[in-house]
Specification:
Structural class: alpha+beta
Distance between the termini: 21 Å
Radius of gyration: 18 Å
Number of helices: 3
Order of helices and strands: HHEEEEEH
CATH topology of the largest domain: HU Protein, Chain A
Strand order of the largest sheet: 1-2-5
Strand content: 25-35%
Helix content: 25-40%
Shape: elongated
CATH superfamily of the largest domain: IHF-like DNA-binding proteins
């Protein structure tokens, strides 16, 4: 069974592979996530070369349906973060 990586798994991997302490690795990961989040909040895309692009997409108000009851409910407009993989990353899995 495949394992889902957590934030702590990434921190531990950086610590082991680079030789930094867990504290320093944690600080680096937190800073990276904060930078990405900050840029997305400003409405900017974040492109990581050979990996992919994070971007914010606006979704309009729409009618959804509760699959259990079948009752229609309005879904408010909102912004969502999307991720699209780069061609380099895609080609590694073909």
């Amino acid at each position: 069974m495949k394992k889902t990586w957590t934030r702590n798994d990434i921190i531990e991997a950086i610590s082991e592979n680079v030789g930094l302490s867990l504290t320093d690795s944690s600080i680096i990961i937190e800073e990276i996530f904060e930078l990405i989040l900050s840029e997305l909040e400003k409405g900017n895309d974040v492109k990581i070369s050979s990996f992919g692009t994070f971007s914010v997409r606006h979704k309009k108000t729409r009618i959804g349906r509760n699959p259990k009851t079948g009752i229609e409910v309005p879904i408010k407009e909102r912004n969502v973060v999307t991720f699209s993989t780069s061609n380099v990353l895609k080609s590694q899995f073909n």
